[in-house]
Amino acid sequence: MLFSRLPLWAITFGAGIANGIDLNPDDIDSIKSSASTVAAGMMSHYTGYRPGDNPGNLPPPYYWWEAGAMFGHLVEYWYYTGDDQYNAHTQQAITWQAGTDAEFMPPNQTLSEGNDDQIFWAFAAMSAAELNFPAPEGNGPSYLTMAIAVYNLQSARWDNKTCGGGLRWQILSQNTGWDYKNAVANGGLFQLSARLARYTGEDKYANWAEKHWDWFSTSVLYEPSTHQINDGTDVTANCTKSNPTQWSYNYGLWFTGLAYMYSATQDQKWLTELKAILNTYFTNFYPQASGGKILVEIVCEPSGNCDTDNLCFKSFSMRWLALTAQLVPELADQINPYLRASGKAAAGQCSGGSDGNTCGMKWTQTAWDGSTGVGQQMSALAAIDANMLRLKKLNLPYTAKTGGTSKGDPSAGTETGPGNNIIDLIYTRKITTADQAGAGILTAMALAFTLGGGYWILGTSA
Ligand SMILES: *[C@@H]1O[C@H](CO)[C@@H](O)[C@H](O)[C@H]1NC(C)=O
Ligand SMILES: *[C@@H]1O[C@H](CO)[C@@H](O)[C@H](O)[C@H]1NC(C)=O
Ligand SMILES: *[C@@H]1O[C@H](CO)[C@@H](O)[C@H](O)[C@H]1NC(C)=O
């Protein structure tokens, strides 16, 4: 090719042939091929399937929970596109990390594992159950049993000795964040119980979701007049003040749980709250300056300060927005423009790296932002996949009554035994420095906060 025919940007930046992925969000083949390219970029980071490697772990700097989240997206990728090339890796990772007790508390992780870390693996298993994702060969625990085990463990961690209830962020009292009750740990269990309520039809899960919602919605984590979801609150100050940091996935956790509860019960109470939180979410995370329909992780993205965890947060509310439109069809017309614009913009960020298709984070800009990683790929993948909903006849997430094949053991997670009973771990094992430096969503971050002064500093110490 003649040099003079190259577009100007290619000369200036020496970039590759690609100018982002040109997603047509109204075309099934375009969505499939775009999603396939982005999924391949995501999986280029993963080596756990190789002999001698560790199934279900991503290499540093990615924490264990993010791998769980990634495999959840791969279950959903298969559902949306039908591409099964990563199914075997996904089955292997989920079953290996769930362990024979189905609890997602593998000994390599337990000493630094938080409730939120565990829940993202449980979501992967729950999605696998809801979507009839193929089960692996053998007699291991079912996907539904894994989700139930995590529900049983986490609901037993309900702490009404402080702040009238709620879950603490951490599982172990030695870990930073034990004194923090937050939107992610509580929204995680709320969503899981709502999903189990819908899947199984059993009252106990719906009752739990109701109890959890009642606590949350009257705590400082939620502002009922503005429907703002705050990040967390300090137990040692009796949960009287909140850390108001705004993360998109906190909203997604709660609005999706509400969508499941509405789908399960048809009770208007859930729909009213769902609509209200969605509106605040759209207002907070889709700035008018970029058209009002493109998702921005507002706390860290404009300033370029997102840490490894933060970089994947957008993936969750993208996936969950689509799920909400599915579960509550009357909201689809409102939600679709956000999926369309964000999907297209996310694909357009995938123009970096040596392959010319590596995704950045800043969907509101047309030139690649120079960043790369699993979180960026995951987020773009979820945003692209979500557009399939409008075009392809997809089954609603199954329930036990509508064709869900995964059968669960209701007592999973309640047996006591080595590695199974967290109380044993708390009292019988000494934490080593290596343990403390281990995985954990934000667990290894030093959390320094002065509630009275009204400012919070979050810094990485891992
Ligand atoms: C725990 O770590 C060991 C050593 O790296 C590894 O062989 C094993 O697969 C890990 N277990 C899990 C469940 O990841
Ligand atoms: C606190 O929680 C425990 C265990 O779930 C329950 O038995 C007890 O009734 C609760 N107490 C109050 C005051 O809610
Ligand atoms: C928290 O509440 C308890 C019981 O009401 C009270 O004894 C304690 O002083 C309170 N602590 C703070 C920091 O407000």
UniProtKB/TrEMBL annotation:
<dbReference type="GO" id="GO:0012505">
    <property type="term" value="C:endomembrane system"/>
</dbReference>
<feature type="signal peptide">
    <location>
        <begin position="1"/>
        <end position="20"/>
    </location>
</feature>
<keyword id="KW-0378">Hydrolase</keyword>
<keyword id="KW-0325">Glycoprotein</keyword>
<feature type="transmembrane region" description="Helical">
    <location>
        <begin position="437"/>
        <end position="458"/>
    </location>
</feature>
<dbReference type="InterPro" id="IPR005198">
    <property type="entry name" value="Glyco_hydro_76"/>
</dbReference>
<dbReference type="InterPro" id="IPR008928">
    <property type="entry name" value="6-hairpin_glycosidase_sf"/>
</dbReference>
<comment type="similarity">
    <text>Belongs to the glycosyl hydrolase 76 family.</text>
</comment>
<dbReference type="GO" id="GO:0016052">
    <property type="term" value="P:carbohydrate catabolic process"/>
</dbReference>
<keyword id="KW-1133">Transmembrane helix</keyword>
<dbReference type="GO" id="GO:0008496">
    <property type="term" value="F:mannan endo-1,6-alpha-mannosidase activity"/>
</dbReference>
<keyword id="KW-0732">Signal</keyword>
<dbReference type="GO" id="GO:0009272">
    <property type="term" value="P:fungal-type cell wall biogenesis"/>
</dbReference>
<keyword id="KW-0812">Transmembrane</keyword>
<protein>
    <recommendedName>
        <fullName>Mannan endo-1,6-alpha-mannosidase</fullName>
        <ecNumber>3.2.1.101</ecNumber>
    </recommendedName>
</protein>
<keyword id="KW-0326">Glycosidase</keyword>
<dbReference type="InterPro" id="IPR014480">
    <property type="entry name" value="Mannan-1_6-alpha_mannosidase"/>
</dbReference>
<keyword id="KW-0472">Membrane</keyword>
<dbReference type="Pfam" id="PF03663">
    <property type="entry name" value="Glyco_hydro_76"/>
</dbReference>
